[in-house]
Amino acid sequence: MADIVKYGIIGVGMMGREHLNNLFHLRTEGVAVVAVADPHLSSQELAQNLAQSFNWPLKVFSGHKEILDSGLCDALIVSSPNMTHCEILMDIISHPKSHHVLVEKPLCTTVADCKKVIEAAKRRPDILLQVGLEYRYMPPVAKLIDIVKGGTLGQIKMVAIREHRFPFLVKVNNWNRFNCNSGGTLVEKCCHFFDLMRLFAGSNPVRVMASGSIDVNHKDEIYDGKVPDIIDNAYVIVEFENGSRGMLDLCMFAEGSKNEQEISVIGEIGKGEAFVPESIVRWGSRVEGRDGVKTLKADDDRIKYEGLHHGSSYLEHLEFLSAIRAKGIQAPAVELQDGLVSVAIGVAAQLSIEKGRLVTIEEVMNE
């Protein structure tokens, strides 16, 4: 077997522990989590207990600088709160020892911070940086991406993504209740969907129009005297350079939904759909009509752990490990530029809601 790749996890709240679980299920591929960093004792203890159940001895640090200076890790997972990503990434990039990085979405909470990280990373060709936009790997979504790339639907004209789900979960110190920490709902949550729109459209975004508000959730919550300001529903329209359009329909008080995500991609000659968590994919052509629509139950035999995201985090880790082992020959599956554009669309959408007008991507890219 190849040398064991030693991982450290920075931020072991709910998502950090999810990464720990995924990496344990990847242990036969030659990986081990050897260290974690988190300032919160409760998160440290939960991570330690989980690692103990795996018989993985963990070195525990209270900050990311200590884990960097320890020299224990080959690769780092950054799954700390969104507003900490920029500082942590800059410290990793400027550290003398090279550490490969998988950073949770969003890359950063602002376009300026994303660009700062991208510029700094250019000076470190020895470091692999992958962004955690793992919805690409959900089996029904991955199958739909293959159908689109295969040309079955023709030139894509419209992408509609509906996410109807439960409210945001409670996180450490309730950091995700405020735009200043998360980047806002359309950055924090919806960067996934803007990334998928861009993949399906095969083009870059140019203009965004959005309408959204706080209508139901978190209105009776108060933290340090402040009421949460994160929106709980929105419609977002994204126009792309090649003339295709995307639309997001988001509702975070829709627990009574059979599927959490419903994706529809329409080309000149056909239409494809994906449903999560049903894991169903449908596609058909204009010529064959309704009777010719094919239905497939999507799965992926490589998945050994479903976790919180239907196996997509497991597949993301497989891709990341493969890129690490390729030693610079293989680009990360999701690059920093992908992270930047997904954030930029979210920022433009938030601004469109705030200002009540159309916002160009150029406007937010030059902020």
Strand tally: 15
Task: Name the overall outline.
Answer: globular
Q: Give the strand line-up of the largest sheet.
A: 14-13-12-11-7-10-9-8-15
Number of helices: 12
**What are the low-pLDDT stretches, counting only 5+ consecutive residues below 50?**
none
InterPro entries: Gfo-Idh-MocA_inositol_DH, Gfo/Idh/MocA-like_OxRdtase_C, Gfo/Idh/MocA-like_OxRdtase_N, NAD(P)-bd_dom_sf
Pfam family, one: GFO_IDH_MocA_C
Domain Gfo/Idh/MocA-like oxidoreductase N-terminal: 6-131
Domain Gfo/Idh/MocA-like oxidoreductase C-terminal: 148-360
Protein architecture, described:
With 367 residues, the chain is an alpha/beta fold. The chain is built from 12 helices and 15 strands. Strand 9 and strand 10 form a beta hairpin. Helix 4 (85-94) packs parallel to helix 5. The mean pLDDT is 96.
Summary of the model, kept short:
This is Oxidoreductase family protein. With 367 residues, the chain is an alpha/beta fold.
Secondary-structure map with pairings?
Layout: E1 5-10, H1 14-25, E2 31-37, H2 41-53, E3 59-61, H3 64-70, E4 75-78, H4 85-94, E5 100-104, H5 111-121, E6 129-132, H6 139-149, E7 156-164, H7 179-182, H8 185-188, H9 191-201, E8 205-213, E9 233-240, E10 245-251, E11 261-267, E12 270-276, E13 280-285, E14 294-297, H10 312-325, H11 336-355, E15 359-360, H12 361-365
Parallel strand pairs: 1-2, 1-4, 2-3, 4-5, 5-6, 7-10
Antiparallel strand pairs: 7-11, 8-9, 8-15, 9-10, 11-12, 12-13, 13-14
Helix pairs in contact: 1-2, 4-5, 5-11, 9-11
Domain Gfo/Idh/MocA-like oxidoreductase N-terminal: 6-131
Domain Gfo/Idh/MocA-like oxidoreductase C-terminal: 148-360
Pfam family, one: GFO_IDH_MocA
